[in-house]
Amino acid sequence: MKTEPQLDPYLNQFLNLLAQDIAQHPGAAQPIAPSMALRSLALIDGVEIDIDKPLPATDE
């Protein structure tokens, strides 16, 4: 039996707030510049992430 993924209530609230803001101000949303996307990708190039590994106590 497949279970549905659990939704994070805070993420859900944030996404609802974002959707409301976009609906109220549709012209304010702008696409990310390709140069910014490439810069962002360069910052994480080679970084490996284990999402199953717990965060250190200092990062929680």
Number of strands: 0
Q: Portion of residues in helices?
A: 40-55%
The secondary-structure class comes to mainly alpha
The helix tally amounts to: 2
User: Low-confidence segments, ≥5 residues, pLDDT <50?
Assistant: none
- Please trace the helix and strand order, writing H or E for each element: HH
Q: Largest beta sheet, briefly? A: none
Give a structural overview:
With 60 residues, the protein is mainly α. Helices cover 45% and strands 0% of the residues. It contains two helices and no strands. The chain has helices at residues 9-24, 34-44. The chain is extended. The protein starts with 8 loop residues before the first helix and ends in a 16-residue tail after the last helix. The mean pLDDT is 88.
